[in-house]
Specification:
The protein has seven helices and no strands. It has 145 residues and is mostly helical.
Length: 145
């Protein structure tokens, strides 16, 4: 039993592992400990990666172990969906471009917010014919003063 407790305490979710896979390993070790659900909920939180903990900090607290697992599963699923969208958008952005060296493999929040706005511009950059000449703006400024 002490070995199972030690294994559970040292268990961590791997960076590229989904929660649905991880929870099987976690509960296998948890079964051997005979801990109560409150302790298991605490131990589970300890094993999670920081990106999940950050979201859980903002979410309503779940007092029950099973409801906590469901919440973690939802957060993790959303993380992988967003990551997939980011990677797809990055692939589209880099296709046909000659400057792919700046691409990164890990998403950050700023890129997730800005990238969708930039994609239409990258596909159809404004041509010089669609931009108004500067002299027209100067004429407008004189009329307004």
């Amino acid at each position: 039993m002490a070995k199972a407790e030690n294994n559970l305490f040292n268990l961590k979710m791997r960076p590229k592992e989904q929660f649905t896979t991880f929870i099987i390993r976690f509960e296998k070790e948890a079964y051997e400990t005979s801990w109560n659900y409150s302790t298991l909920r605490y131990a589970l939180r300890h094993t999670l990666p920081q990106h999940i903990k950050d979201v859980l900090w903002l979410a309503p607290k779940q007092p029950l172990y099973n409801s906590y697992k469901v919440l973690v599963m939802q957060v993790d699923q959303r993380y992988w969906e967003d990551r997939s969208k980011y990677n797809n958008a990055q692939t589209q952005w880099n296709s046909g471009q000659s400057w792919q060296a700046g691409a990164t493999s890990s998403p950050n929040i700023l890129a997730l917010l800005i990238l969708p706005c930039l994609l239409p511009l990258a596909r159809n950059p404004p041509s010089s014919e669609t931009q108004a000449p500067i002299t027209q703006h100067r004429d407008l400024d004189h009329r307004l003063s």
